[in-house]
């Protein structure tokens, strides 16, 4: 997926595989990752996982209708 939004994430519980472009790493509890806008990427849970993710600018498709 390609878009202009930067995406940052922190693994609260669990473990994930993070692919950014052609590079894949594993993020464990407490690790943080940053995905620059416009790069193909994928985050895959390797076990039951809780993440906190932040997008900049705000992803309009994630804003609830009020």
What this model shows, in words?
A 3-stranded antiparallel β-sheet has the order 4-1-6, with no helix packed on it. The protein has a 3-stranded antiparallel β-sheet with strand order 3-2-5, with no helix packed on it. The protein has strands at residues 6-13, 15-20, 23-28, 32-35, 41-45, 50-56. By secondary structure, the protein is mostly beta strands.
Helix and strand topology:
Layout: E1 6-13, E2 15-20, E3 23-28, E4 32-35, E5 41-45, E6 50-56
Antiparallel strand pairs: 1-4, 1-6, 2-3, 2-5
What is the strand content? Answer: over 45%
How would you classify the helix and strand content by structural class?
mainly beta
Helix count equals 0
Q: Ends: how far apart?
A: 28 Å
List SSEs in N-to-C order.
Answer: EEEEEE
Largest sheet, spatial ordering of strands: 4-1-6
Helicity, in percent? under 10%
Question: How many DSSP-defined strands?
Answer: 6
Shape: globular
How big is the Rg?
12 Å
Quick one: biggest sheet?
3 strands, antiparallel
Q: Which stretches are low in confidence, meaning pLDDT under 50 for 5 or more residues running?
A: none
Mean pLDDT: 92
């Amino acid at each position: 997926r390609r878009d202009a939004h930067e995406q940052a994430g922190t693994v609260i519980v669990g473990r994930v595989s993070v692919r950014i472009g052609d590079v894949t790493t594993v993020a464990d509890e407490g690790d943080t990752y940053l995905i620059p806008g416009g790069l193909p990427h994928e985050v895959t849970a390797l076990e039951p996982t809780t993440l906190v993710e932040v997008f900049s600018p705000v992803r309009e498709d994630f804003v609830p209708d009020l």
